[in-house]
Design a protein that fits this description.
about 425 residues, mainly alpha, 22 helices, about 80% helix, globular
Length: about 425
């Protein structure tokens, strides 16, 4: 078993793709050491992706890509500017509110950063904000993407942990609001400290016009979450409905999507989906090996021998997830760590829906850090800043994000109140 873990870490450090590191180290153990027949290995990998909830993955990815290409980002930004541009440090507030709205459509932090990041950073620089401040607030607000539903990491976590995806989606709404409040409070602090002004006057007619223009896009999260809450959709059906709605917006209402764009969006979706499912299949084999060799049981026993206090367990889990999030992408981290951590979580009485939100937020913060933070690299390219300068720009924004993480970790009701209200969590 030590050989398995050593090979996995060594291959990963060498820069080999995650799914090859997972599958290769697992195959080394199962084929050459344990002597397990090849058909069992293939069955385990295929079984890992033979899951009905996973059908939601390609459709949520497609819905996010369609929204990115449907010409809605400018409409969202204009509405956010009308709603918050009058505040001190206005465009920083606009940046955050725009990300809140776009999070209800994209489902990933990278899509949020790439979709709105270009518009937001350029607008802030044109109004005299420093490039570093613009990049920092854009990076921090991008973490809202997978917390506010829909969320691709929630779908993967729900499948791996056997948790209701609808409960996870509802559980992310109030934590997303808490994160928004902490970030806007930090913008208010910066605005006072650096004497930032207002970027535009408040105008009711402009607010009304921009709201009407953005209303069809604003209906997307209501369609997804509302449909699942009232039992109209399963998560997979909600993802399909989101795709259909995005097509209606892009093709018929906004008339901004051509056949060529749709073809490109489809190819991008296939490429992203293939990458996600390769990781899930390889991680399923890796997790099965960890379980059959009793690594998960030993890890549980070792951790519980130290403490059975749920808050200390959550603290240790947070530290582990923040560290892992700097080196592995969220889908791989969830696929690997859920089989290891879930037995401990359940034994000490932590609700798995609460833990799913905590885990996802930790991994989103990891996306802002080198060496493998994808949001870091995306914004570095958009802003034409070096990785070093981009990293330094993001560091101050860890304060509101970590404050949000502490609040969400220590107060489970922030996550569980809405799912309990509709009966999805006891």
């Amino acid at each position: 078993m030590t050989i398995l873990l050593f090979v996995f870490i060594a291959v990963l450090i060498a820069g080999v793709p995650v799914f090859i590191a997972l599958a290769g180290s697992s195959l080394l153990y199962t084929h050459f050491i344990a002597g397990i027949p090849d058909f069992v290995i293939l069955h385990r990998m295929a079984g890992g992706i033979d899951s009905f909830p996973l059908l939601a993955v390609p459709f949520f990815i497609l819905a996010g890509n369609l929204m990115n290409s449907a010409g809605i980002t400018n409409r969202i930004y204009n509405f956010a500017a009308a709603a918050a541009g009058w505040m001190r440090g206005g465009l920083a507030h606009v940046n955050i509110i725009g990300s809140v709205i776009f999070a209800g459509m994209s489902g990933t932090a990278i899509a949020d950063a790439a979709g709105l990041g270009t518009i937001e950073i350029k607008a802030m620089k044109d109004h005299g904000y420093s490039t570093e401040f613009s990049v920092g607030v854009t990076a921090a607000s991008a973490t809202l993407g997978p917390i506010i539903p829909p969320s691709l990491p929630f779908v993967i976590y729900g499948m791996m942990a056997n948790v209701s995806i609808g409960a996870l989606f509802l559980g992310g709404i109030i934590p997303g609001a808490v994160m928004t409040i902490f970030m806007m409070l930090y913008v208010t602090y910066c605005a006072r400290k650096y004497n930032m002004g207002r970027d535009q006057a408040f105008n009711w007619s402009v607010l009304g016009l921009t709201f009407v223009a953005a209303l069809p896009a604003l209906m997307t999260p209501a369609l997804i979450v509302g449909g699942m809450t009232f039992g109209w959709f399963t998560p997979t059906e909600a993802a399909i409905a989101a795709c259909a709605w995005a097509l209606i917006l892009g093709v018929f209402l906004y008339r901004s999507m051509s056949l060529k764009q749709f073809y490109k969006v489809t190819l991008d979706t296939i490429e992203t989906t293939a990458g996600v499912l390769l990781i899930v299949g390889a991680a399923s084999l890796f997790g099965w090996v960890l379980t059959t060799t009793q690594v998960t049981e030993r890890a549980t026993e070792a951790l519980l021998s130290l403490t059975d206090n749920r808050y200390i367990i959550l603290l240790l889990a947070n530290l582990l997830l923040l560290f892992v999030g700097c080196f592995l992408e969220p889908i791989a981290s969830i696929s690997i760590l859920v089989p290891v951590l879930m037995p401990v979580v359940l034994k000490v009485g932590i609700d798995p829906v609460h833990f799913g939100v905590v885990m996802t937020l930790n991994l989103m913060i990891g996306l802002l850090h080198p060496p493998l933070g994808m949001v870091l690299f995306v914004l570095s390219r958009i802003a034409k800043l070096s990785i070093e300068r981009t990293t330094m720009a993001i560091l101050p924004w860890l304060l509101p994000l970590l404050a949000s993480l502490i609040a969400i970790t220590l107060i489970p009701e922030i996550t569980l109140w809405l799912p309990r209200l509709v009966g999805l969590v006891k």
